[in-house]
Amino acid sequence: MKHILPIITALLCVNFYAQASEPAGKTILARGSVLATNETAQQRQLQRRDTVFGIDRITTGNQSKAQFSMLDGGLISLKENSELNIANYQFDKNTQQGSASIELLKGGLRSISGVIKKNGGAYDVKTPVGSIGIRGTHFEVQLVDDNVFIAVWDGAIDLTLTNNNVLSLGDNEAFSFAQITSTGDVFTTTRAAAVFDQTIATIEPNSESEETEQTQTASTNNTIIEDDSTADAYSEQQFQAVDNAFLVDQIAQRQGVFNYSASDFSVASSAGGVTDFSMTMAVDFDNGTVPDGEISFNDAGGTWYAAYSGLINVSELDLAVTFASYGNNKAQGDIDAVFLNDLDTIIGNFQLSEINNPDVNASGSFILEP
User: Fold this and answer.
1) What is d(CA 32, CA 47) in angstroms, rounded to the nearest whole number?
2) Does the pTM of the predicted model rise above 0.70?
3) Pairing state of beta strands 216-217 and 177-180?
4) Three-point CA angle 363, 57, 345, nearest 5°
């Protein structure tokens, strides 16, 4: 009896917790220390596939990061040493309507808005200097000391400052990047701040122009990056929300083998720039398996190659690397992937490293489509 009571108590706590708030999304990546704290100060360590709720405050530790697929298909990525409060995230899958409000308290986040914003719902991100209203976008926010840095990679945002002035950034605006100080001073520029780990193609300044007058272009498609903290499954594509029950029906209806290949990717390598990225995956819906898949790309040190296979497990794919190499050296790795868009999209992350020298490594994210 003494062993049964703690189990019953734990189940009651879980049931109460589930009833206290509606789910806001799912964890699709959790590396290092990723904690969720509810309104009663209960904490839990988040792992891949774990649900996040509308009362959760999520924190990432040192050398940690997390990524979440929200109810409406929106994507949120948290960098290390970050703190995010999910103040509100409501979405009706029948009407495809909802609203969302999140608050970045510390660190940095990257986000792509989903169906809520696409269908005209309210979606805002609160920061220490004001509230960001989204106009269908892919954007990034980083808090550094008392400064807020903002980058808009696609779409546009309206930042309502604490003095009620509105700063608009992104498409059809003069600038896509800004720094706002704690005193409300605003510095806009066409060059992304160094705090953003993104490779951006810029036109070098000439002797007659200032940095804020330079032309800059940024694209998330086929971006080659050199820092693992940006190796997340993101693109400019707007994803559709999918629940597990719906996916079970979709998987049951599909027949045969579907061959997926990379439509978008981000790659980081310890040897620098990456070229010739290729990734394929065969999904056998009749047998519920991934019979084979391959990843290959080049960097300054040679060619990375990995073969993998696995099983379909509802929204996710349980994948295992069966062989990996870097040049003539043996390597190891792991792959995480999930279905989106009625099974027409697979997003995920991978990590590879030499077995005898783990400091030689590469990692990245991918989006696969038939």
Assistant:
1) 10
2) no
3) unpaired
4) 40
- What element of type H or E holds 253? helix 244-253
User: Which amino acid is residue 261, in one-letter code?
Assistant: S
By C-alpha distance, which of 344, 346, 347, 323 is closest to 333? Answer: 323
Q: Are 69 and 51 in contact (CB under 8 A)?
A: no
User: How many Cβ atoms sit within 10 Å of the Cβ of residue 254?
Assistant: 16
Q: Which of 292, 274, 275 is nearest to 283 (CA)?
A: 292
| Whether 349 contacts 363, CB under 8 Å | yes
240, 243, 246, 250: CA torsion to nearest 10: 60
Distance of CA 220 to the CA centre of its chain: 12
Q: Give the pairing of strands 329-340 and 345-354.
A: antiparallel
Task: Report d(CA 17, CA 281) in Å as an integer.
Answer: 38
Backbone angles phi and psi of 244, in degrees to 5: -65, -40
Phi, then psi, of 306 in degrees rounded to 5: -145, 135
pLDDT digits (tens, 9 = 90+) for 276-334: 999 999 998 887 889 999 999 999 999 999 999 988 876 578 888 999 999 999 999 99
What's 21's DSSP letter? S
DSSP 59: E
* 244-369, CATH topology level: Porin (2.40.160)
Q: Taking the domain 22-219, which CATH number applies?
A: 2.60.120.1440
